[in-house]
C-alpha cells in the first residue's frame, strides 16, 4: 500500500470513534482530509464539526457538514487529527501545516483524542521532524534567540502566516528526551503562542496504518 492509501485507511477507521448525534472535533492535514471525506458519508448521523483550520472548515463545508465555533459547543466527545511524529507514549509533534494552536485548543477541549497516521510517523524519540513554534510576529527574533540558548536551531517559515495571523519557527536539532518538560519551557518564552509538542495532552488512541492494516495503539 502507498502512504496515501494508508492515510485513507486510517481516516476511514476513525469513523468508528465518532459518536452519533455529537459534534466532532476535526484536525488538519492530508490524513485528516481522508477522515473528512469519510465523515461526509455519515454526516446525517452527526450534528456537525468544530474545525482546527480554515482549510478543514472549507472541506467540511463543501461536504455539507455544519461547522460550529468551539465557543458555541458544550461537549466534544472526540477529536480526530493527524501528526508529524508520534512516540510510543502517543506524545506528538504537530504543526507541519501550521495549524498547531487551534489543534491544541480543540484537543484540550475534547474527551478523547484519536490520532491517525501512517507508519512513517511512529518514532522512538521525537525530534527528527523540526518542531513548529507559533510566535507573535514582533517577538520572532527574541524567541529565536531564546530557542538557540536551549540548543535548538530555529528556522523562520518564510511566506507563511498562521490562521491566527502569527509566524512559525521550525526548530531543528532539539534532543527531545522529556517532551512534557520541553513543551512547558517553550510555552514559557514570552511571545510564543504555543509549540507543536502535544505531550501534556497526548493522544489517547493512535490508529496507525501499517502493512495494509490499521494497528490500534492506546496509552
Ligand atoms: O498543522 C498541521 C497538523 O498538525 C497536521 O496534523 C500534521 O502536520 C500532519 O499532517 P499530515 O496528515 O498531512 O501528515
TrEMBL record:
Any one biological process term the GO annotation gives: pentose-phosphate shunt, non-oxidative branch
Positions that bind substrate: 28-31, 81-84, 94-97, 121
Pathway named in the protein's UniProt entry: Carbohydrate degradation; pentose phosphate pathway; D-ribose 5-phosphate from D-ribulose 5-phosphate (non-oxidative stage): step 1/1
Enzyme class name: isomerase
Documented EC number(s): 5.3.1.6
Active-site residues from the entry: 103
UniProt GO cellular component terms: cytosol
Signal peptide: none
Statement: the UniProt record of this protein carries the keyword Isomerase: yes
Protein keywords: Isomerase
CDD domains: RPI_A (cd01398)
GO molecular function, one term: ribose-5-phosphate isomerase activity
Catalyzed chemical reaction(s): aldehydo-D-ribose 5-phosphate = D-ribulose 5-phosphate
UniProt cross-references to NCBIfam families, sorted A to Z: PRK00702.1 (NF001924), rpiA (TIGR00021)
HAMAP family assigned to the protein according to its UniProt record, in alphabetical order: Rib_5P_isom_A
Assigned protein family: Belongs to the ribose 5-phosphate isomerase family.
Assembly, per entry: Homodimer.
Physiological role: Catalyzes the reversible conversion of ribose-5-phosphate to ribulose 5-phosphate.
Record's protein name: Ribose-5-phosphate isomerase A
Phylogenetic lineage: Bacteria, Pseudomonadati, Pseudomonadota, Gammaproteobacteria, Kangiellales
